[in-house]
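quick one, 279 residues, struct below
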Amino acid sequence: MREEFLGFADKLIGQDDLVSVYESLIKIFDENCLFHEEGACNEKLWHITQKPELYKKVGDVFANKVGNFEVAFHAYNRYIQFSDENFYRNYMRAVKKLGYEYDKPDEDDYTLEIIKLCDAFDAIVYMMICLFRQKEYNAIFEMDKKLYEMQCKINEYIARYPDIDSESYVNDNVYSIKHLSQILSENKHHNDINLLAIKYDNTNKQAYINIIGDYITYKNYNEAIHFYNCTYSNIFSLSNTNNIVDICWHVSDYYRDNFDFYNSVYFQKHALEIYMKEV
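---
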């Protein structure tokens, strides 16, 4: 999967053979139960081909596999709109008369290159999520370089065409990268992965807590104090401390507040053990 994904990333960056890339990713994501990513790639494929049946596939994925009927509803409406625009207008008028929310027609210009570039950025993020689920951590860092290349290409395009309204598409990328950060921080025992999560979203508190907790678990107390004071406390406006017991209680409180009582008690135990050795 690593080599295949790196090849896909190069094609996405070069905007080469996009239809084949998305068709391949749709199949891979389906096989790996990444249904949100499968549905999203069907939509990105529609941006290129404008085949209405792709929006029906998006609706089917979100309705039957994800269980998100709001997204499915909008996708099905797009399918009707792009299949028969005249029927769509009459259909939506009837929907509005019955008091239901009106789903406005999609009038974006999908010939814009910025859309395809931002779609490619998202697709690289999706591949990184897939690699994380497969625990191919080294490959994630290789894909991170591809993501940076893609971001540079988007930035160059925006600088070259400042009059094109690209904000909504770029905002989608920001959401994607923050979502990736949250997923990476599900891993509690790989500090390099958690540092990458922080790189993508420096307000992702779970990633910081994972690193501090890992230092405490392996009794690297000086490293825990240094990371807490020099990195964590600055982001979250906390007072510095040189007391590792206080840091243990802070980590325990974080898990308690997030209803993870096993880890809350685990770090309470560390706090009490360290305290008893000090007195």
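The mean pLDDT is 94.
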